Amino acid sequence: MKSFGLLTLLMLVGCALLQLIMPWWSLVLVCLGLAAWQRPSSGRAFAAGLLGAGLSWWLPALWLTTHGAARLAGRLATLLPLGGNAWLLLALSGVVAGLVGGLAAVSGTWLRQAASPIAAHSTAPQR
What we know:
By secondary structure, the chain is mostly helical. About 80% of the residues lie in helices and about 0% in strands.
């Protein structure tokens, strides 16, 4: 559990900081790289990417919405089929970012397993 929490925190901070200077898709690089480095299981990688990347979008959006940008979020929500509901837009953006981060983290885990297949299958009986 300790490594899951650390991985989630690293993804959250890494995604939030990198997105200050790079485009939104930079969270893919962070989640993929950290999952390949930490080598979690596929399920833990997806959950850490989902939470880390999702919160890296949701927390700043929540803060901005509660501190004066609610009108902008409401106007953007009218462009989408959300009925002008700014809170639904916040939830949807966090889910989308979380899914992208989770899939990137699983891809990082699988990439690491593909790069070192002998270490991944070391429990197989030797002939």
